[in-house]
Amino acid sequence: MGTAVEGGRSGPRYVQIADEIVRQIRAGVLKPGDMVPSESELVERYGVSGGTIRKAMVEVRASGLVETRHGKGSIVKDRPPVRHRSSDRFRRSLRQGGKAAYLAESAQSGATARVSVLYIGPMEAPGDAAQRLGVPVGTQVLARRRLYFRNGTPVETASSYLPWDVVKDIPELFAENPGGGGIYARLEDHGHEFAEFVETLQARPASKAEATELALSPGAPVVHLIREARTTAGLVVEVCDTLMAADQFIFEYRIPAAD
């Protein structure tokens, strides 16, 4: 006997079933560490074929809420709560107070944040970063690559590219810990006053390598964000290429209504 699926998207039966399983996870009916019912259990519950259930589970895994372990089945992930990512995180007062954007925002939401530095050093500028920085592809830049954790779970990777002629006389930018307020505070200390930060966002499925790094299921949604840090002198002094687990962020921006 099949079980009715309520409140989901209209469309194929497997999509409706996937929606219900995802709702159960988000509502806490299925808790972190719980096993998702087996294929045979779901076949009996919904009165559909095994093929329909397998297609439904592809959708559920794409949500990033479960992980599949060989020989065990699908397990609900222990993911940290969603946090807001707002335009306020770049306020100068936060930098002057010694708070870098990620740590300040995490503290406001009551989370325990940690940053793991993966690489700091010279690198040839990748094509997109070079174009945004206004330098030829392959020009030497300073690269800083980080992995961000929230309550022990990896949620974001970020790679910053900074012009070599800007950073070569700022030794703090070559250190794992650049000091209070992060790299933006050090840049401003050396006369590079910021005028604006311009961000471009794109949602897409994670690659296999990206899913592994962020502890996501293959194909789970991520947000690819590229930020340009622009100074009052009209220079782009940093391009930050960021990848975020989409289920962990809500984006909130303030948009001036005046010209």
Structural class determined from secondary elements? alpha+beta
Distance between the termini: 61 Å
Q: Could you tell me the number of beta strands?
A: 10
How much helicity do the residues have?
25-40%
- Cα gyration radius (Å): 22 Å
What is the strand arrangement across the widest sheet? 4-5-6-9-8-7
Inertia-based shape: elongated
Q: Hey, roughly how much beta strand do the residues contain?
A: 25-35%
Number of helices: 9
Q: How would you explain this protein's 3D organization?
A:
This protein is α+β, with helices and mostly antiparallel strands and 259 residues long. A six-stranded antiparallel sheet has the order 4-5-6-9-8-7. A hairpin with a 2-residue loop joins strand 5 and strand 6. Helix 1 crosses helix 3 and helix 2 crosses helix 3. It is elongated, with a radius of gyration of 22 Å. The chain starts with 12 loop residues before the first helix and ends in a 7-residue tail after the last strand.
Describe the structure using short key phrases.
259 residues, alpha+beta, 28% helix, elongated, six-stranded antiparallel sheet, 9 helices, single chain
